[in-house]
Design goal:
The complex is a heterotrimer. Chain A contains 20 helices and 2 strands. Chain A is mainly alpha-helical. The radius of gyration of chain A is 22 Å and the shape is globular. The relative contact order of chain A is 0.10. By secondary structure, chain B is an alpha+beta fold. Chain B has one domain: FAS1 domain, CATH 2.30.180.10. In chain B, strand 5 and strand 6 form a beta hairpin. Chain B is globular, with a radius of gyration of 14 Å. The termini of chain B are far apart. The mean pLDDT of chain B is about 90. By secondary structure, chain C is mainly alpha-helical. Chain C has one domain. Chain C has a two-stranded antiparallel sheet. In chain C, a hairpin with a 2-residue loop joins strand 1 and strand 2. The longest helix of chain C has about 35 residues. Classes of the chains: A mainly alpha, B alpha+beta, C mainly alpha. Chains in contact: A-C, B-C.
Amino acid sequence: MLSVLIWLPVVGALLVGLWPGACAARLRSIALAFATAGVLWSAWLLRQFDPTQPGMQFVEFIPWIAPVGLHYSLGADGLSLPLMALNSLLIWIAIYSNAYSGERPGLYYGLLLLAGGGMAGAFAAQNLLLFFLFYELELLPFYLLIFLWGCSDKRGYAAMKFLIYTAVSGFLILGAFLGLVLLDGSSSFAYGEQSTAALPLITQLILLTMLLIGFGIKIPLVPLHTWLPDAYCEASPPVAILLGGVLAKLGAYGLLRFGLGLFPETWALVAPGLATIGAVTAVYGALSAIAQRDIKRMVAYSSIGHMGYILLAAAAATPLSLLGAMLQMVSHGLILAILFHLVGVVEAKVGTRDLDVLNGLMNPIRGLPMVSALLVLGGMASAGIPGLVGFVAEFLVLQGSFAAFPVQTILCVVCSGLTAVYFVILLNRTCFGRLDNATAYYPPVRWIERTPALILAGIILVLGIQPDWLSRWSEATAQAMVTPIQSAASQLKKPLPSLRAAATSFSPN
Amino acid sequence: MPDIVDIAVGAGAFKTLVTAVQVAGLVDTLKSPGPFTVFAPNDDAFAKLPPGTIPTLVQNPPQLARILCFHVVPGRYTQADLAKVGSLDSVEGAPIPFYCEDGVFEVKNATVLAADIEADNGIIHVLDRVILMG
Amino acid sequence: MTTATTTAAPSYRGVLPPSQHEFAEVIHRLEAGGAMLPDSPENLMQIIGIYKAYAVPMDFYWRDLLYMAEQVFLEPLPFFKYFPTQEYLDRHNHYAGDTADLRIWRGPATAHPELLAFMAKGETGKMPKLLHHLWHDRINMEFAEECMRAMLWHQGMGGRFNDYLDSDEYRENANRAIRAYFKGNPAMLALHKLFPEMFLEQCRQASYLANLGLFWEVMAPVFFEMSDLFDEGNLRTVPEAMNFLVNGIFAIAGRPIYHHVYIRGECYEVIPKSKGFTWLYEAALPYVEAVFYRTSPFRGTKSYNAQARQVPEDQKDFHYGILYADVFPVGTAGIPPTLLMQDMYHFLPPYLVEYYSRHCKGKDDMLIQLGITFQRSMYCVTSAVIQALRTALLYPLDDPNPRHLQANRAFFEMQLDRFKRPEARLRNIQNQDYR
């Protein structure tokens, strides 16, 4: 069943890529049909999923290369399923939003689908080697997408930087996996069959550090982030949506799944450091975003900042904070997607991303009124305004982490405020003010460009008002993931906050 | 000596002006002892106005009277007097500037064709253009 | 004399050196008998089309303005002031139809047929006019009232009208009308006794309503006639259009401006015709000054902070009129000028609709496109006023006297000095791409 999510896009990619001499519009329709099927399939999976079960569901197992321990083994839980659904949605958005007019449309749509299939595979894999395979598989499409369809002359540089960083990330992760399996003697790459408890602490620390750096590059964490602004800015908006919306989540997913899942004892040891790195990442991202003159770069740095929250929540490792981390992954994916999409529309229409040039787009006739309005909504969601999905996730992260790491959490709270600062700067310069008479003859925004943002805005709003529809998938998994940590961290001797406790503390009495 | 109106009627070149003065009901005023200094546009001057201007004014005597009053200054001023003062307030209220140099005598944007025509109750300067307030 | 290189030789050639003014090109054009708006068929088509679209609502404006000034007058709750009676819709324009004092437009003297058709159906369809009114599917008198307020507020723009409103004579006339209006209403009469200035100020406002109504009564047929002449092929260039306006200004310069109030069938002459107030001096020139140049800062187009001196200290330095307006926001800000554009939008001639659909966002931003056309057209009207003033107060363009030409030059330069400030759109309208 999960295989469909992986192989449907791959089949689509092959079909689109090899379709002889078709026009761009037809290829887009075909790609879109596959993406739509993926979205529908995700929806069906969500319906079938039993949220009360913390374990793996939809399990598939096909023996493959037994001597190496590599098997085709899939499964989904409350951590990975929402991300798979997000992946399907953003692939659809990426394909839909771009009425492609460049060269080689077949290759372009094929690579988008292939990347989508690769990411779905990485989320679904239940075997460390299989995960690594998928993790590396989506690299190539992204590299090509940035390299071939990037925005400016710097795209080659950005793509190469992206490739080197993420390849290093892959090798570190592979190294950690191999080391883990070799050292603990389990000789199985299936999830949950390795036990790190027997390993010496120093070995655990080394392996965990390799994983942390490997996934830290992908997330990215400061100071491993330098590839990100270039890659995000050079990538065309649909690719940026996938990079920021899903690919970065793969890093965070890996951190939770493997860092936290495989090293529950050591995790408590490194947690304070991780929380600090998370807070530093958040502060760094926010401050850098404030300094940007380029709105796409601003959104890229905001992405770094928001990923810091996930690290903080993961470090705190309370049921509430982990749930917050899972929600933050989805909500950040949605918000980043709408922001990148809208920034892309603004750039396409106005021809610049420069804050000093942009102005007055809120003008109802000559500006881009709906785009501006949605941009305001996206900015509000990103700044964590209540009623939007960003608030729910950030609130859970902060509420869940405060007991464990008060200082780092307060720093992140400050960053939430800074988010509002740079989005006010962005919105004030871009949407408000006077439209320049000399230049403001922008082409009309087509519905094809509005629809993705409208869909995302709808989801952001609905999940913000009814967060239970988002949190219900992950609650049991979050609880289950914490159990091994709690035993390790029992010296904390503090009642760890849970969603129920948070809910009761917010009841009127 | 004839009064201002008599001179204008007698000269023959002021048919429009005389008609206008009659319509505006200013005949009696201009026959009064005064004295007045009148800047009298001749028929050619009125003809220089765009078509329609005069008919509309003739339909509206108070408005016509106002324009005509702009051509009258209380008191008796010869060209030499006017050259000295530079500007005078008309009966209408708005000021009329004068330009008097190198043998040129201009009243606002009109040129004086004939100056210092003495009348019983004032003095007449003939203009080549109707002058307007402002 | 040096040889002229262009067919329409500017008068400065051989007599005056070229102007050193920032807008020297425009000044030379004015000296050659042109307008501030460059002469091109595209400009001509635009301005004539918009004159026609402007004239239809204007035909309503002047009728309703006079209705308000003469009939509604001091009504404390004027809910129905935008519903002129049939009598006012049938009222004969003094400059159109067979009964005209001076026939400027060859069409009928009663309300324009397109106006009546729109009043009946609007955008939404046939329904009671109260519903049309509430749904804002109507001619928006708010713009006309805003123009009146601009004239009332700015004052001191030449003419005798404003001074007269403060005279004892006016006070006496007005009080008589006020007392008659509130006859049998002891409450209002007591209020009038207590606050003698209150209704007087309302009366002054009504006088300006009458002033503006009488002004536009002339402009509507002028614009209709220009549109008809253009359609017949008898108006071929922008200077021809401007000269038509110049001649029109002179032809009706002497039209009386007055304020009569009708109370229970009796006429009260608040401002009698015998005061000699004229269309040119007491209505047209103050109107141009107040509405084209000054008006007031509109909320919604820009943030104005008087404390930060973003609004001039002197009223004469105000520059928020159509000649300076940033039409991009004005077209949508919901302020009175926006409503004017909305009004004109309903009566665009087909050739303008077709023209707009070919540019920018087509039908989507027609309000702004027509607003900018309106700006162009008002530069043409202002050119006509400048040329008319030059004709009235200065010298012919072909005057042989260099001193006279220099005076003309100085006059033109002084007029164009007002467009040196950065907000002025004179630079923009020189270019066809400003739309």
